[in-house]
Amino acid sequence: xxxxxxxxxxxxxxxxxxxxxxxLIRVHxxxxxxxxxxxxxxxxxxxxxxxxxxxxxxxxxGGELDCECLGGGRIKxxxxxxxxxxxxxxxxxxxxxxxxxxxxxxxxxPDYEVTWADEGx
Length: 121
What we know:
Blueprint: H1 2-7, E1 12-14, E2 17-29, E3 35-42, H2 48-60, E4 65-78, E5 83-87, H3 98-108, E6 113-116
Function: Exhibits phosphohistidine phosphatase activity.
InterPro entries: Janus (IPR007702), Janus_sf (IPR038596)
Subcellular location: Cytoplasm
């Protein structure tokens, strides 16, 4: 049941354009050891914690899931050019493993050029 519940959570949700903060979140099942890592990035967020707090609050509401922020960074998303660049870090959560985030984004946007770098803020 836990794996099925986790499989229903979209692994990637990003705003369609712009430069914005993102977080990599590990969503754990409270029933067993299963988990899924998800990427969330939104232009409305002033801080990385704004994204984490909203997403974790929604996912944990049912009491069956627990969330942990693995880090953050920034995303430059250009849907017209079909390019996404992942970079930077979060002052509060540290740097996410951009290689993990990038692989998830590539799966969600297979026709995009998706790149990453540890440089920048």
